[in-house]
Amino acid sequence: MKTLTTLLAGLALASQLTPAHAGAVQVDPAIPAYTATSGVSGNLKSIGSDTMNNLMTLWGEGFCKSYPNVKLEVEGKGSATAPAALVAGTAQFGPMSRPMKDTELDAFEKKFGYKPAAVRTSFDALAVYVHKDNPLKSLTMQQVDAIFSKTRRGGYAKDIKTWGDLGLEGEWADKPISLYGRNSASGTYGYFKEHALFKGDYKDEVKEQPGSSSVVQGVASDKFAMGYSGIGYKTADVRAVPLANKAGETAYEADMDNVYSGDYPLARFLLLYVNKKTGEKLDPLRGEFLSFVLSKEGQEVVIKDGYLPVPNSIIQEEKRKLGLK
Amino acid sequence: MVWLTGGGLVLATLMIAGLLLLVVFNGTLTFWPKKLTQITTHAGMKYLGEVSRSEAYQHDGKPAHRQLLRTANFDLFGDHFKWISRHDVARIDYPAEAWTVERQEWGLFVGFLKEVRIDGQPVSQTFAELHGPARQRFHQLKSMEKNEIGEVNRAIEELRLDLRRIELKRGKESPEYIRAVAETTKRETELQAEYAKLGAEVTRLRAEDARYTVVLAEVNGQTKEQKISEIVRAYPANHLNLLQQIGVYASRWWEFLTDEPREANTEGGVLPAIFGTVMMTLIMSLAVAPFGVVAALYLREYAKQGPLLSAVRIAVNNLAGVPSIVFGVFGLGFFCYVVGGGIDQMFFPEKLPTPTYGTGGIIWASLTLALLTVPVVIVATEEALAAVPGSMREGSYACGASKWQTIRRIVLPRAMPGVMTGLILAMARGAGEVAPLMITGVVKLAPELPVDGHAPFLHLSRSFMHLGFHIYDVGFQSPNSEAGKPMVYTTTLLLIGLIALLNLSAIYIRNRLKKRYVGAQF
Questions:
Q1: Handedness of CA B442, B448, B451, B454 (dihedral sign)
Q2: Which residues of A fall within a CB distance of 8 Å from B156?
Q3: Could you tell me if B245 and B278 lie in one domain?
Q4: How far is A22 from chain B, CA to nearest CA, in Å?
Q5: pTM (two decimals)
Q6: Which of A79, A56, A30 is nearest to A187 (CA)?
Q7: Tens-place pLDDT, residues A7-63
Q8: Which B residues, 465 through 504, put their C-beta within 8 Å of a C-beta on chain A?
Q9: B3: which of A109, B19, B121, B149 lies 20 to 30 Å off by Cα?
Q10: Does B28 map to a domain?
């Protein structure tokens, strides 16, 4: 998390450049459009994160518009399947919603002698959702921990069980908080456990859902519910609660500006891992796909799927790293 | 006792009828064109959209009412839906010139058609005049990319595989290989030239296509220029008579049934999923019918009745109670990895490490489901065989027929309707099953159908799409769940309809069989 925050601090400037359009997220206008080249064909396979399942499918659809002869097969069974697939060579791309662990990096390095390249393709802000009628103003990370975790590693004094414990009044005061979350196979489950629960354990009452979208639907149909899910799944029936790092600090909305400035506590990069030897060029097929992802069109796809695009500074950095024009 | 049993039946019927009604009601309404409501708030903001539902709620302690408006225009505002409280509403209009525009990408647009442009200049032709030809160009482009360019690519891929096959067989230094390399290079240059020619044609068509655009304006005046060919369907929502409404409704159903999905499965049609479901059920029936019938024949006619047989029977009955996901895991381990991996080693070494049969595919999914449903067929067949009167067998033996002749000519024909009933039950169970399929071959998006015009025409190794999995995907994984919900109902309706159709045809065949044998008795 720290590395992300420091990285993001440098991007505060970029956020000022983004146009202040009401509501709609826009791609950084400085990002160049994609230009198709010739002679690109073949099969691509991506194995990894289920959070990025739709994203990879949409990128594939967009990429195939320029190269109808390219076929992209997408398999999304969880971030943990990506490193294994890259090591075995069964997939060219490993989308992951968390960075590789040291053991996974070591396994890769042992086989190839170098580390895989991680491409930062987009942002996801993990949001804590409540029902749209819920008057809750904001939460601190310690409160989130006390609501979802039974171990309370965040250091909040007491367990939070009812809405009254969060200071709500009237009909809310004695109603218990009904909790929704993801199943343990999901990367979102793991990320939330690590960063919101401070590596503690979930309460047994958390209702585990098979998809991010069903968490949101659960919260939408249950007035006294709270759940966590990616910002891309927000609907008109739920509200994302602003989050603060500590008590007494400002709480930030899960929007583009706060993610870019690094203020929102639960922001993460969505990464695309590729097998690339340092100093060597990528083959045209993979290179062009990554160019597409890091282009204006590729970043528009990110918005279409509900995630947040990266600013041009990151795009340029990634392209330099990959040796793309 | 009459009341208890009757009550049980009524309760069960009511529950089934209620569920069916819910699905049918929600499923059939999805595609009906809705009116566009324009709401002006006290604050002066304007919203235009389809009212999707409304609800009562508490506003400052007082009961109030609010509506969910499908405002669409996701590319402009980042939302699909908006709740508007009755308290804030100053005015409600139904503007006559408001249009609902369904687009190839980015979902719905609601607003007004401002002007039609060719080469960026406003022209006098109407949108309706240009839309037909634009869609034709769009489909022409699609088919060129898919068929003609696809053909060239298949040829190039084939060349590469042929070369690899020779390399594997003869080695890299062999004269055959060197000759083949030269041959391949020459052929590949020709194909590349052909590809370049087709590519140029596609580029030309695209450029032509981009000339025709339409400017759309949302309710507060912000505009967006859209290629006409990328508009699937557009209609003035408040200006339709009943006939036109039916037209839009029918055309949406048609698209749903015959088109491919787009936007990561949230829009477009489900043809590949229908195809996959039907084909998988048929392959499963082909596998399960002979297997189940033969097993039941042995159990009933040949085997010596005793404790061992009872144990086998109990085992078969218990098999029906094993959770389906266990069958899925077995299918993945045994069929995909062991059998499929073996086939790859033997017949497709040139494609390795990319697996051909050694991964999920329609054949493995069908066989897994066949295993899952075989107990149903065995039990039903046994019952049917037991119901054939002993006197008929004895009559047959008395005439000097052997055991097999008796079974084939006397027993099996009379048991056939019962066997068919078992098969119908098995099909119904199999077609609705999803869990084991998810790990043995069903995918979110399959680029190709398992049947096409290229030898060997039937590609049993391909992964496929399935209506049941489609429901799961749209219901639980789609980012725009509010818009996905009606699609879930519609897809469910379609799946139920499809299973009913499969069952009805099986019942029809059974009745014909019955008639034939009843008529032939004496």
A1: negative
A2: 41
A3: no
A4: 7
A5: 0.79
A6: A79
A7: 444 444 344 333 334 456 778 888 888 887 766 777 788 888 877 888 888 898 888
A8: 472, 475-482, 484
A9: B19
A10: no
